C-alpha cells in the first residue's frame, strides 16, 4: 500500500513542477512587478492609480463588452448545441463547429478585415441589395460579432456535453405528464444543463475580459479594454508596474468568477436532478 502511494506521489512530480514553473511563478512575478514604478522604485502608487476614474471606466467597459460577448454567445450556442444532439451526424457537425478554433486568431482577424472592409464581401452584398456601402469595420458591431464568432465553440462544447448526459426518460416523463415543449425545456432540460452553461460562460467571459488584439484590428482602438491597457503599458509606455497591476486585478476577478460559478455546481446539479425527477 505504501509503495502504491509513493509511486503515485512520484507521478505527481511532473505535474507539480509544471504548475510551479508556468502558473505560480508567473503570477508571483506579476505581483512583484506591480509594486514598482516606471523608474524601478518600490511603490504602492500603481494600485491607487488603478482606482482612478480613467481605469475604472476602462474596467466597466471591459466588463460590459465581455458580458455582451458572453450573452450573445450563449444565445447562439445553446440552440446550436440542442440541435446538434438531435441530428444524425452530430459528431461531424460538432467537428465543423470546432474546426475554426484551430485557425490562428490573427488569421481570422485579418479575414474579417477583408470581409467587413469598404470593398469587402459584406459591403458588396449591401451595395447589391441597394442599401449601399456602410462603415462596418472599426465599430462596436464588428468587434462583438467577431468576438462571438471566435468564442462560439467554447460555449457550444460544454452545453453539448451537458445535453448529451440528460437521461431521455426524464424528458419522456415530462411529456407524458402533459408538459408542453417550453415547460419541459424550462423545468427539465435547462436546469439539468446549467453546469454546462456555467462552464461555457466561464470559458467565454474570462478571456473576453482581456481581449486586446481584436480591439486594435477589428475595433480600430474604438473599444478600450483592460487587455488593451496591459499591452500598451508593457509594449509602448514600458510601465511594467502599471501593466502588472492591471493583470493582478484581472487574475483576482477571474479567480472570483471561477469560485462563484463553480463552488455550488455539484450541489445545484443534484438539486436540479431531484427537482426534475
Please write out the topology:
Elements: H1 2-33, H2 45-50, H3 53-84, H4 90-98, H5 105-116, H6 121-128, H7 140-164, H8 168-176, H9 181-192, H10 194-209, H11 213-217, H12 226-235, H13 240-262, H14 265-276
Helix pairs in contact: 1-13, 3-7, 3-10, 7-10, 8-9, 9-14, 10-13, 12-13
Membrane topology: Multi-pass membrane protein
Domain ABC transmembrane type-1: 59-261
Keywords: Cell membrane, Membrane, Transmembrane, Transmembrane helix, Transport
Q: Would you kindly provide a written description of the structure presented here, covering whatever features stand out?
A:
This protein has 277 residues and is mostly helical. The chain has a single domain, classed as MetI-like fold. 76% of the residues lie in helices and 0% in strands. The chain contains 14 helices and no strands. The chain has helices at 2-33, 45-50, 53-84, 90-98, 105-116, 121-128, 140-164, 168-176, 181-192, 194-209, 213-217, 226-235, 240-262, 265-276. Helix 9 packs antiparallel against helix 14 (265-276), helix 10 (194-209) packs antiparallel against helix 13 (240-262) and helix 12 packs antiparallel against helix 13. The two termini are 41 Å apart. The relative contact order is 0.13. Mean pLDDT is 88; it is low at 265-269. Belongs to the binding-protein-dependent transport system permease family. CysTW subfamily. The chain crosses the membrane at residues 12-35, 63-85, 92-121, 141-163, 203-220, 240-260. It is a multi-pass membrane protein. It is found in: Cell membrane. Pfam families: BPD_transp_1.
Amino acid at each position: 500500500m505504501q509503495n502504491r502511494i509513493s509511486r503515485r506521489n512520484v507521478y505527481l512530480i511532473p505535474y507539480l513542477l509544471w504548475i510551479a514553473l508556468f502558473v505560480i511563478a508567473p503570477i508571483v512575478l506579476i505581483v512583484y512587478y506591480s509594486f514598482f514604478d516606471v523608474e524601478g522604485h518600490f511603490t504602492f502608487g500603481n494600485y491607487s492609480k488603478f482606482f482612478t476614474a480613467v481605469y475604472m471606466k476602462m474596467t466597466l467597459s471591459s466588463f460590459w463588452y465581455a458580458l455582451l460577448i458572453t450573452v450573445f454567445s450563449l444565445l447562439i450556442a445553446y440552440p446550436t448545441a440542442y440541435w446538434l444532439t438531435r441530428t444524425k451526424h452530430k459528431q461531424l457537425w460538432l467537428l465543423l463547429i470546432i474546426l475554426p478554433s484551430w485557425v490562428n486568431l490573427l488569421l481570422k482577424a485579418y479575414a474579417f478585415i477583408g470581409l467587413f472592409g469598404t470593398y469587402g464581401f459584406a459591403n458588396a452584398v449591401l451595395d447589391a441589395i441597394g442599401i449601399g456601402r456602410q462603415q462596418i469595420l472599426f465599430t462596436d458591431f464588428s468587434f462583438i460579432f467577431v468576438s462571438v464568432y471566435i468564442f462560439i465553440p467554447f460555449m457550444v462544447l460544454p452545453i453539448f456535453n451537458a445535453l448529451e448526459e440528460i437521461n431521455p426518460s426524464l424528458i419522456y416523463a415530462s411529456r407524458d405528464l402533459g408538459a408542453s415543449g417550453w415547460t419541459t425545456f424550462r423545468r427539465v432540460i435547462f436546469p439539468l444543463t446549467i453546469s454546462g452553461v456555467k462552464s461555457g460562460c466561464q470559458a467565454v467571459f474570462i478571456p473576453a475580459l482581456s481581449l486586446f488584439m481584436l480591439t486594435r484590428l477589428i475595433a480600430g482602438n474604438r473599444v478600450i479594454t483592460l487587455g488593451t491597457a496591459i499591452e500598451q503599458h508593457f509594449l509602448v509606455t514600458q510601465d511594467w508596474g502599471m501593466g502588472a497591476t492591471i493583470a493582478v486585478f484581472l487574475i483576482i476577478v477571474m479567480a472570483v468568477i471561477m469560485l462563484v460559478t463553480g463552488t455550488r455546481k455539484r450541489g445545484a446539479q443534484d438539486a436540479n436532478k431531484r427537482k426534475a425527477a
